[in-house]
Amino acid sequence: MPTINDLTAKRFGKLTALEPTNQRDSRYVVWKCRCDCGKIFFTSSKKLTRGTVQSCGCDQKGKRSRGKPAEDISGQRFGMLVAVKKMPSKNKRTMWLCKCDCGGEKIAEKQGLKNGRIRSCGCLRGNAIGAPRRDLTGQTFGRLTAIEPTERRDCKGSVYWRCKCICGNEAEVTEDCLINGNTVSCGCRRQELKDNIHKTLTFVDGTCVDYLRSRKSRSDNKSGFRGVYQIGDKYRVSIGFQSKRYYLGVYSDFDEAVQVRMDAEKELHERFIKLYDWWSARAVSDPEWAEDNPITFDVTVKDKEIYVTSPLMKEMQKERAEKLTEIPARSDEKTA
After folding, report:
1. Please, are residues 33 and 54 in contact by the beta-carbon 8 Å criterion?
2. Cα–Cα distance for residue pair 271/269, rounded to 1 Å
3. Alpha-carbon dihedral of residues 12, 16, 21, 23, nearest 10 degrees?
4. What is the per-residue pLDDT across 230-260, written as a single tens digit (0 to 9) for each?
5. Tens digit of each residue's pLDDT (9 = 90 or more) over 277-325
6. pTM here?
7. For labelling, which of 24, 66, 95, 265 has a CA lying 20 to 30 Å from the CA of 315?
8. Residue 141 phi/psi, 5° resolution?
9. Cβ atoms within 10 A of the Cβ of 161, count?
10. CA–CA distance from 25 to each of 14, 19, 43, 232, 264 (Å)?
């Protein structure tokens, strides 16, 4: 049996070896040690003698808590700005008070100074305090009329103007937003558009028919195709209808996933549009019938396939069959 190297009472950094234990770490004896901070710590003789471990970890915790010292950029020039002194951080960003060549001052983000994004107090744009400013008094921008400038500036140095809206409200808007047309009201126009959107769109049983007619491929997911979402090296398929979402499985092949989604659109969305067109045409000639027969669409998912039923589907197919324009029904469809 190999002899154990006696490390008792020996120091290794902040650790003092007390006694060996019966534990082994890759065949090396695990020693019970006491750290200078008072904590008992166990580590192998290999790590002690090679200097891999010199404390229980308390020194590293201290380094982490102190963090990296902030870089001192006082006296450095960035464009027209010279850093004067460090200011309190804002949103976890280091801020510096800077003196501009024009005589103005600006509190700027250190990262913006170093990457060249901030190069003046705003005087290069004509928006610094005390610098020449464009007079917008009395000018109209959409629904807003500029009244007077304020002392506020945005992060780019653009002046906030107090404006009067035609609705009677007041708002403070930057010069840039007024001139570029980004803001044309106090917010009343956005609210009006939101309130009137339902008047311009057709909703049936909670479904927007206009959206289904004009849907396009989506670019807000990794796959780029609507309803097909990339998860790692696979693709999850789903389809939305009547404020609900139906999941159609996960596929390894992208083309297969897209085909499943397209088949679901044909079965669900296209059938709904055809039923709505037939119903709305009949409602024009027979309003009482339309009131007694509202459109309802029941959806079920079985074996990753969409199935739809509606009390009006059978009647529509019967009427179209008489006109020799029957909509082909799926052989596996269950009719009520």
Report:
1. no
2. 6
3. -40
4. 888 888 888 887 778 888 889 888 888 888 8
5. 888 888 888 888 878 888 777 888 887 788 778 888 878 877 777 765 5
6. 0.35
7. 265
8. -130, 100
9. 25
10. 21, 15, 8, 37, 58
